[in-house]
Write a structure and sequence with these properties.
The protein is α+β, with helices and mostly antiparallel strands. Helices cover 43% and strands 30% of the residues. The chain crosses the membrane at residues 12-35.
Length: 125
C-alpha cells in the first residue's frame, strides 16, 4: 500500500507539529534579520549625519583660520558660512593671551544641529 500524505504523516504519527515548529523558527529568524537590517540602516544614517556635521565644522574652521591670517576676522561678529551640507555660524571673542574663542553653530540640511567651541591663537603681525 502506498502512503498518500507522507508530508503530514510518518510511521510514528502526525508530523504537522514538526512542520509548524520549523515554520515558526523560520519566521523568528527572518524577523530578527529584518530588525537587524533596520537597526543597521538607522546607524548608517546617523553616522552619515555625524560625518556631515564634522565636515561642516572643518570647512568653517578652515575659513575662520584663513580670515585670521588675513586679519579680516572681527571679534563679536556673526560670520555665516553656507556650504553644500548646511550652514555654519561662527562667533569670535577675544580671550587672554591673544587667544580667540570661536563658537560654531552648525545646522545641516537635514536639520541636525551641533555646537562647538574652539580656541585659536591669533597670528602675530
Amino acid at each position: 500500500m502506498r502512503k498518500r500524505l507522507a508530508l503530514f504523516q510518518n510511521d510514528s504519527g502526525f508530523a504537522l507539529p514538526i512542520l509548524l515548529t520549523l515554520i515558526t523558527l523560520t519566521f523568528i529568524v527572518l524577523s530578527a534579520l529584518l530588525l537587524e537590517l533596520q537597526h543597521s540602516q538607522a546607524l548608517t544614517i546617523n553616522e552619515k549625519e555625524q560625518i556631515q556635521l564634522d565636515t561642516l565644522f572643518q570647512m568653517a574652521h578652515a575659513s575662520v583660520l584663513e580670515e585670521c591670517r588675513e586679519h579680516t576676522f572681527q571679534m563679536d561678529h556673526h560670520y555665516v558660512y553656507d556650504f553644500f551640507y548646511g550652514k555654519v555660524t561662527a562667533i569670535g571673542s577675544l580671550q587672554a593671551d591673544q587667544k580667540v574663542r570661536v563658537e560654531y553653530r552648525i545646522n545641516t540640511i537635514n536639520n541636525s544641529e551641533k555646537g562647538l567651541v574652539q580656541y585659536i591663537s591669533m597670528p602675530s603681525e
